[in-house]
Every structure is written in C-alpha cells, then in structure tokens.
Amino acid sequence: MALEITDSSFAEILSKSNEQPVLVDFWAVWCGPCRTLGPIIEEVATDFDGKAIVGKVDVDNNQEISMQYGIRNIPTVLIFRNGEVVDKIVGVAPKETIAEKLTAHL
C-alpha cells in the first residue's frame, strides 16, 4: 500500500532515497484523473514492495511540498533518487509506463 506522505514526513521519507528510489504521486480528492491513477499507484506500490518506496501527497493538505516542487497540474508523479528528482510524469499514465520509469532507477 502506498504511504501517505505529509509536509512533516516528506524529508524523512526522501532521506531513504539513497537506498531506494522514492515515487511520489501528487493528487487531490476532487481530481478525476487522480482517482483514475490511484489504483495504478497502489498496484505499483505492491509490485515494488521492498524495492522502492511509493507514496502519495494530497496537495490540498500538504501545500508546502507541492509548492517546493512546483506542482501545478495533478496528478503529477515524481521519482526521487539520492534526494533529487530523476523522473516526472504529468497526467494519468499506464502502470507499465510508471513501472518502467521506476525500474530504471532501481
């Protein structure tokens, strides 16, 4: 299951990106495309359990992180490695695309 990431937990989770890539889905409850992507992110979290950290940030409740990374469109998925953004997907993408991008950073 994807972790719920908040403004207060983000730095700690990101610090683990030295060991494993961290995939973060920026979303909102009212966003239709986000609701489409949600189950895909959950599947990716299950598939990559133990290999990558997969989490979700509700942009309405965690505006600090969203502003820090310039999130203007949702859903936006960022992949971090060693604390840096190494890949980005804006909009709904198929599971295969997300898995390929994440696998490239294992």
TrEMBL record:
CDD domains (UniProt xref): TRX_family
Transmembrane segments: none
Residues the UniProt record annotates as site (Deprotonates C-terminal active site Cys): D25
Keyword Kinase: no
PROSITE patterns: THIOREDOXIN_1 (PS00194), THIOREDOXIN_2 (PS51352)
Single Gene Ontology MF annotation: protein-disulfide reductase activity
Marked site positions, Contributes to redox potential value: G32, P33
Sorted UniProt keywords: Disulfide bond, Electron transport, Redox-active center, Transport
Gene3D superfamilies on file: Glutaredoxin
Domain Thioredoxin: 1-106
GO cellular component: cytosol
GO process terms (BP): cell redox homeostasis
Disulfide links within the chain: C31-C34
Entry similarity comment: Belongs to the thioredoxin family.
Protein's recorded name: Thioredoxin
